[in-house]
Amino acid sequence: MRVFREVSLADSLTVLNALFGFSAIVYLLLYGLRIEAFALFYFSTFADGIDGFIAKKTEKSPFGKELDSLADSISFGVFPAILMVRFDPNLFPFAALFLAFSILRLARFNVVEFSDFYGLPTLVSALIVTSLIRISSDYYTLAFTAFLLSFLMICDIVYPRVNDAMAFFVIALVLVSAIFFVEMCYAILLLAGIYTVYPLIREVMEKWRERRLKKLLSKQE
Predict the structure, then answer these.
(1) Could you give the domains of the chain?
(2) Beta pairing partners, 118
(3) Tally of CA atoms within 13 A in the half-sphere of 45 that contains its CB
């Protein structure tokens, strides 16, 4: 089987990401909203982060990008969507929208050659949704957040890649702590919220500077 000769170490971790995501879904369906399901989800985020780091340091796989998106659709699209419905069946329309737009975002990622991201990464969206559910947010907060995240995932706002080793360490530490302490979900929401809002603020500031510069130039003329 030739495919096994083409699979790199990064690809193996990507498959592990999908398996952790699938395991989280199965555990959720069988046993409900227990910490084990969330722990498996956090493990999928570790695998996703490590496979991206290794992919940058080693030879590129012929199908690594496509494989990564397929795995992410399971762990960061299907799992959060099912989690929302399991938490509150009335969230089904918002869960369906979240899943549909996460798939669209990942499909666009595969065909666009860009060093950063167009639209909010599905991983960040999934972390926000799962954290809100772990702290037992109300229906309206989850519905509004899922609706907003869905559109942020397919917007044209540029989100930066996180390549700093220290940032990876801090995020990993927070996620590991969240397995044992639900209060750490607030730290996840804080970090994810800063990442989500920062490009929006930056874009508004850049437009404001452009308008101000145009006004100054028009006055000089």
Answers:
(1) 3-220 (1.20.120)
(2) 158
(3) 30
Among residues 28, 35, 16, the alpha carbon closest in space to that of 179 is found at 35
Residue pair 16/47 in contact (Cβ under 8 Å)? The answer is yes
Most distant CA pair in the chain: distance in Å? 71
Strand, helix or coil at 117? strand
Mean pLDDT of all residues in 78-93? 97
Place of tokens 């227990």: 34
| Cβ contacts of 73 within 8 Å, gap of 6 or more | 102, 103, 106, 122
Tokens at 14, concatenated: 């990507």
Packing angle of the helix pair 184-220, 165-180 (nearest 10 deg): 140
Please name which of 85, 86, 75, 87 lies closest in space to residue 125, comparing C-alpha atoms. Answer: 75
If one counts every other C-beta atom within 10 angstroms of the C-beta of residue 194, the result is 10
43-77: per-residue pLDDT in tens? 999 888 887 767 666 666 667 678 888 999 999 99
Asked if 70 and 13 count as a contact pair (C-beta separation under 8 A), the reply is: no
Amino acid at 220: Q
Please state, in angstroms and rounded to a whole number, the distance separating the CA atoms of residues 161 and 163. 6
Kindly state the tokens that stand for 65: 């990008």
Residue 109, pLDDT > 70, answer yes
| Separation between Cα atoms, residue 198 and residue 207, nearest integer Å | 14
CB neighbours of residue 24 within 10 Å: 27
